[in-house]
Design a protein that fits this description.
The chain is an alpha/beta fold and 429 residues long. The protein has two domains: 150 residues, Aspartate Aminotransferase, domain 1; 264 residues, 3-Layer(aba) Sandwich (Aspartate Aminotransferase, domain 2). Helix content is 35%, strand content 16%. The strands form four sheets. The protein has a seven-stranded mixed β-sheet with strand order 4-12-11-10-7-5-6, with helices on both faces. Strands 1-2-3-15 form a four-stranded mixed β-sheet. The radius of gyration is 22 Å and the shape is globular.
Length: 429
């Protein structure tokens, strides 16, 4: 039997029943029905193909419908889609954890698997708190984060996201209260000045007896503003955390797996955090999966404490289907000259993004690795600009003042050029 797709009916029911992220049910912005995706192309129900500039919120690094990742999923689902991870283990999870230990900064050698990036941050924060409780220092129950940061939508993650200009400021009265340092102001390639770290240092020096951990996004602050900062800032943070006996949590959910031009953004500064969060592109965008890694000191400190174990256990932890695809995705990435590929994408972005600086509506442009950012002087009208981008045959999802691209790594130069030209055409109107 052939079922005829009725786009208007799908969209009508979508608006009636479905609550999309950061959207209103009473005044929803348009949604576009997708029927398939291949490579860097998203096909809409009306037959239109869009060049994907977002990697489905930064996770589909290999594009869509990749035969190697498809094969990994199909092979695993015939074996088992899921088993509980309490008292049971399996090869896909063990292989993935070993692989993550091998490729992440040296010292991170224990892996806790979870379901999403936000949960991996919750796990990291809980690790830090439980570690200090186990050390007989329960008073170390505060966190130090950076303004301009974003760490997820769950409550602990929200509590360390920018408290004023972040998307969660309306929850200020119900969230735990933590410390915030000014966001780094010195850009990625700018000359270093110690004044950029001065207030962070002062907060840590004054409050380190109450601070369990510093949590930050290394080098690139993502959804909080797409801010690229100096590797020296990260080096200084690592030194200060060591000096004041505070754990360092690196949120690499957005930056991990090559996006910035290093496999992990911490590598730009040559540092190793005590705890690292991974997600998004871990499975190449196929399935939800996240990981929180820590060093021996943290893991032993937790497990040698009163509880005798880490007090967390997601139902779908270590899902074998997701782990199998993650293994295939990492192997696929590392089997290629991924560094040269990111350098290629960065070069094309730099060539095209310069023209945007001449537009009166543009405040600033910046590029790092496979990330291109056009910061507008004023917030864009999301519904209207989205419609215009779709008409140009491109998929870009701005937020606030930021029009940015984080395309799949498989994008070709011609498609990347079409993507940037399409954005320029709309922003120059």
């Amino acid at each position: 039997m052939t079922i005829k797709n009725n786009q208007s009916e799908i969209i009508r029911k979508d608006q009636q029943f479905v609550w999309h992220p950061y959207s209103s049910l009473t005044d929803p912005i348009p949604a576009y029905e997708v029927v398939s995706a291949e490579g860097v192309y998203i096909q809409l129900a009306d037959g239109k193909h869009l060049i994907d500039g977002m990697s489905s919120w930064w996770c589909a690094i290999h594009g869509y419908n990749h035969p190697i990742l498809n094969a990994a999923a199909k092979d695993q689902i015939d074996r088992m889609s899921h088993v509980m991870f309490g008292g049971i283990t399996h090869a896909p999870a063990v292989s993935l954890c070993e692989k993550l230990v091998d490729i992440t900064p040296q010292g991170l050698n224990k892996v806790f698997l979870s379901d999403s990036g936000s949960v991996s941050v919750e796990v990291a924060i809980k690790m830090a708190f439980q570690y200090w409780i186990s050390q007989g220092q329960p008073e170390k129950n505060k966190l130090l984060s950076l303004k301009g940061g974003y760490h997820g939508d769950t409550f602990a993650a929200m509590s360390v996201t920018d408290p004023v200009n972040g998307m969660h400021h309306i929850f200020d009265q119900v969230l735990p209260q933590h410390y915030f340092a000014p966001k780094p102001e010195i850009g990625f390639n700018q000359a270093w000045n110690n004044t950029d770290i001065a207030e962070f240092k002062a907060i840590l020096a004054t409050n380190h007896r109450q601070i369990a951990a510093v949590i930050l996004e290394p080098i690139v602050q993502g959804a909080g503003g797409m801010n690229f900062y100096s590797p020296e800032y990260l080096k200084q943070v690592r030194k200060l955390c060591t000096q004041y006996n505070v754990l360092l949590i690196a949120d690499e959910i957005a930056t991990g797996f090559g996006r910035t031009g290093k496999l992990f953004a911490c590598e730009w500064a040559g540092i190793c955090p005590d705890i690292m969060c991974l997600g998004k592109s871990l499975t190449g965008g196929y399935m939800t999966l996240a990981a929180t890694l820590c060093n021996d000191e943290v893991s032993r400190g937790i497990c040698d404490g009163e509880a005798g174990c880490f007090m967390h256990g997601p139902t779908f932890m270590g899902n074998p289907l997701a782990c199998s695809v993650a293994n295939a995705s990492i192997d696929l990435l590392l089997s290629q000259d991924w560094y040269a590929n990111i350098d290629r994408i960065e070069s094309v972005l730099q060539q095209h993004i310069q023209a945007f600086s001449d537009l009166d509506t543009v405040a600033e442009t910046r590029v790092l690795g496979a990330i291109g950012v056009i910061e507008m002087k004023d917030p864009v009208n999301l519904a209207e600009i989205q419609r215009q981008f779709v008409e140009q045959g491109i998929w870009v999802r701005p937020f606030g003042k930021l029009v940015y691209v984080m395309p799949p790594f498989v994008i070709t130069n011609p498609d990347l050029e079409l993507l940037m030209k399409g954005i320029y055409k709309i922003l120059s109107m």
